[in-house]
What does this fold into?
Amino acid sequence: MPSSIGFYLTTVLVYGAVDALACLGLNMEFGVAGISNFGFIIFQAAGAYTAAVLSMSPSAATNGGFQQYVLGWNLPFPLPWIGATLVGGLLALPFVFLVGKRLRGDFAAVGLLVSAVLLNLLAKNYIPFLNGSAGISLVPAPLQNFFNPQGLVYQLAYGLFATLLAVLVYFLLRRVTESPYGRSLRAMRDNDIVADSLGKNLRGQRTSILVLGGMIAGLSGAVLVGFISLWAPGAWGYAETIVLFAAIIIGGAGNHKGAVLGALLVPLGFEEITRFLPPFGSPSLVPALEWVAIGLLIILFLWFRPNGVIPEKRRILSSVVGRTPTVAVAKDDDTEEPINIGSVDDFNFEGLLKTSNAVNDGRVILSTQGLTKTFNGVTVVSDVSITIEQGRLTGMIGPNGAGKSTTLAMLAGTLPVSSGKIFYEGNDITNVPSYKRAQMGLVRTFQLASEFKKLTVLENLVCAIPKQSGDSFWGSIRGRRYWGAQDKGNIERAEEILEGFGLSQYADAYAGTLSGGQRRLVEIMRALLAEPTVMLLDEPMAGVHPNLARKIGNHLTKLCERGMTIVMVEHELAIMDEFCDPVIVLAEGKVLARGTMAELRANSEVVEAYLVG
Amino acid sequence: MPSFGFGLITAAVLAIATVGFTMQFAVTNVLNLAYGSVMINSAFVTYWVNRHGTSIWISLFAGVFCGAVVSWCLNKFIYTPFQRRNLVPITVVIVSLGVDLVGTFGLQAIVGGSFVTFNMSQGHEFHIVGMLLSEVQLIIFAICAVVLISIHWLLKYTRMGKAMRATSANPNLARNSGVKTRYIISMTWIISGALCGLAGTVFAMNSGVFEATSAQLYIVLLLAAMFLGGPGEPYGAMLGALTIGLATEISAAYIPADYKQVIAFLVLLGMLAFRPYGLFGSEKTL
It folds into this structure.
């Protein structure tokens, strides 16, 4: 009797480790990077099949021909497991087209879902590949020539080794998640278009994480198949992915501890509880009720506890060790007092400006030729040719629907042009992706709130700083010793600008909890930290207190004096009057006029189109 | 030619299903992945009424009613509250997967796992330009054609239809222009739900035998047809359904029947990769 309990516990240990591995991999994709991989289970399946066919003898040789499969290389342990890990990663590559920048997250998710269904269908029906729906059995256990796989000691060692792998993966993922690269991943999760505009390569980041998650899933499949010695399509229906999603949602998405907890509660917990249920109803009743329970758990948790049992923890960044978190509560927009923003003179711009010692020569730094954008046959921007001079604060006005924001979006690369060309520093950048434009110094802000909601204010700022050594996958793997010192300097810069804008008390508040005006400020600070040469601001003063708007205007003018170029879309004519020169007027997608505000007021066409009425 | 006949019936059923599915996406921006489970639940309501001695053609209305009520409730009590919370859009899709599990397997828990069939006769068989079609198939085809024409009339010539199209194109602008968007969204879910219930019932009729999980993979055909015509486009959905329905049945004549849906998968993945806004659509403004 004791030995049967021993066998049972080791089995639980192996299953727990396998589920934990799978949930960790999916959590890295979904909870951290925001990739809803509804086809995650196929990566585990691919790993299990790979480990099986790499460790088995050729199909005709020893199996008496009762099953057919490819490969059969008869490789010794641990080569099949390594192969499984690699195949899991490689399988991610064909799906890169789904997770690129242009496809909505939910469309990509259904794409992955149907891929899972398709591959299951093919594996089930095409027998020579992986033995069809019967699946592969008699998979050798690792090292079975040296030990007895049926022995308790072997099984215990197997369970402990699997657990060790899960622990190693946990620490690896934590290392990546808590690095500057992890910060960029979470920024992408919260708002991918904005992360893109700050120079984050979405396709690159998503590919890396999909490959990483796929490798972990592949490994988990190998661990599983080595223990249970069989693998069939019935075990990896697309709905199994939903079970893993349920686990992560219940445990706490974005938190690796939560992923492990979810793995123990849902896939493992369900398996073990039903094992002890007395039989009742028809044979299909208990599995059916299990699925109902999983569905209900997903809905109820997302409603009542959307952050799971262990919510993602708030990351407190600080240049000073042991600082107490400052999480002031934002005031309501209407009653907002002007924030005490530092005066222009005692504000230190030197750290912000890449071009701080550039001479203002007034050369054309950014220009367009015949820029045109059509949506569904409707022309929104038509044949716009403008020039932006270096060191100037150029305003852009026009009635609603004049195409101001669309023009700005095309300049920044957020929207592709329908026709026309864009030149930056003399180079044609029409086909340069937006993240590269940001890296070249062309940085934009957005009309609508665009903070990374579940990053703190300080994280929002730090994540925009370019050229961080820890902001790459390999950089993050090298650890804090590699990027820590630089990151400390970056945090100092962010703290400094935060103080300059009088928002220090909100440093550790989630950016999503700030008031509208404060969010605009965070956005401007973030754009400044991205070290722009040309800054494209889309209605930066909307919802900001007039006194504060004036102060921001002064800051912007000062920045231009120091060599920055700014293009600003704005509705408030008083702001234009005071700060912008020249001003470009757009109406119905065309350039109507360009000049100082005084000149424009004298232009009857402009007055008719915009200034009056 | 015979497979062309089957293809037409499959396409007609798929067309009403896809039109409902795409209308839901159009007005609420939700990929309702629980659609298949509502279909099969409606089919079972029809089955239950039918088994109590009512003619199948009368029972069918029970299925339609069930589809409408369940869909309206789904939107009203689950999807809309989640959307109001301003969560990431994928949350609602995950919720719809949860609903799908509850709907499909809740049904299975109640009715068991065995196959059932409607109490109806297939009627005479007809030879029409080389196609062999049963009376039931012809009636299914006629029903689908009438429904699709009615939907066309609704969208094109009624105030309600225009309001639906306006709500789908730009909800805020529609609301500001005096469209009662909340009412329109409810009506859309009722109408699309009725289509869903009808589709579920005729799908079950066309299959002959069915059980609780029969419609589980139907969502793939729906998605393929919808993305082919452009998400949220009812006319695109009709065209997409026609293409997918014919393609799957005709390809079945040349490749093993187990693979006949592969073409739908490939179409869907190809559309997502290259033209996610449909063959004729283009990206909406940001």
Q: What stands out?
A: Residues 2-235 of chain A form one domain. Residues 331-338, 342-346 of chain A have pLDDT under 50 and may be disordered. Chain A touches chain B through 55 residues (CB under 8 Å).
